[in-house]
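[Meeting: bench + compute handoff]

Bench side (C.D.) handed over the final construct sequence. Compute side (W.E.) agreed to return the predicted structure before the next meeting so the bench team could plan truncations. Sequence as handed over:
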Amino acid sequence: MSALTPLELASGLVLGGDEPDRSAPVDPDPRSAIEHAVLEPLRRGPCLVSFSGGRDSSAVLAVAAAVARREGLPLPVPATLRFPNAAASAETEWQEQVVAHLGLEEWVRLERTDELDCVGPVATECLERHGVLWPSNAHVHAPLFARARGG
């Protein structure tokens, strides 16, 4: 995979590239689509899954765990950002239930306070490295990306 262009980084969209193979049938089943999307990252490993505990990330994590078990691959690692100073964002109980139900033992949990602020140190580093990004909170996942290096 080639590096992203400055425009792609700024817009948060991958533009151009090779035309997709439209000759292959498209599976309309959402689970199959997720299985297809997670298989290669699981093979490459370690596979971190950004996990908030919401429906979307819980579904991706559950399917990734099922695919890993089916294929005999290492289990995915949920990676969660927690914000103890923002009580409204607390989903700890739900997150723990999902991870326990899936039988996952490894779990990256990063607590953050104000360092992910739109003018904080993480956003500033991303701005200096890549320029203006869209969406404006794209930098929030930078700590998770750093933990996912090599996978």
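W.E. noted at the follow-up: Helices lie at 6-11, 30-44, 55-71, 92-102, 121-130, 142-147. C.D. will use this when planning the next construct.
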